[in-house]
Specification:
With about 270 residues, the chain is α/β, with parallel strands linked by helices. About 40% of the residues lie in helices and about 15% in strands. The chain contains eleven helices and eight strands. Helix 4 packs parallel to helix 5. The structure holds 3-methyl-2-oxobutanoic acid (KIV).
Amino acid sequence: MSVSKKEYKRVTVRSLVEMKQQGEKISMLTAYDYSMAKIVDAANVDVILVGDSASNVMAGHETTLPITLDQMIYHASSVIRAVKRALVVVDIPFGSYQSDPKEALRSAIRIMKESGAHAVKVEGGEEIKDSVKRILNAGIPVMGHLGLTPQSIYKFGTYTVRAKEEAEARKLVEDAKLLERLGCFAVVLEKIPAALTKKVSEKLTIPTIGIGAGVHADGQVLVIHDLLGMTHEFNPRFLRRYMNLYDEMGKAIGQYVGDVKSRSFPNPEEQY
Ligand code: KIV
């Protein structure tokens, strides 16, 4: 069921701020390929994130670190060809923006030019402010990402909830305010306490998009493979599965194998 207060023919970064002002929650989902993006877009998801989680769910890596800028551009251009309504945001991958602001801008420009995406996303606050500024100065919209930032997983050591301690929570609030001041159009908050999400969302005029961050975020994001139940071994508390596609697909594929083996596929109507 769609609960949009206003019909958006095309979602823009301005639409998202407007949704926050109107108290309308923002829906965001990942997609990495043409066929999936077509379904996600047709279902009226507001923002499609071509996340570097492609490294996990598409390529089978343990972390998001190995995916390259060229691979992100490949995924993003496939998604862009499918999308008519959603705002498409692309993660700048690990190693393509942290070393210096000029490199960050070059990476962002490649994503925008070669894929046709609408915005980029980067992880971090104060540490990457010069890169964020440089990208924004070139007219490229930037989404921030704070809390559990998977590109820094080896610094954290675990995927547990972030910013439970006072000092880390205070830094997160300051980083969120900084990203807003710099000109970011939204901030993802990943795996932080719901009370902290409430505080940040109330302090910012730009929207917060939560994943494992509770109900007070201005929007929610999930990885599409998790929502559809394809990643059956991944069971964090925050995940609501809307299907069990792992089992459903397995069953269908098993039936096909059985039909081929028993010669019941193809039947006379399925041949020329
Ligand atoms: O890469 C990704 O999918 C993400 C979301 C989990 C926010 O960054």
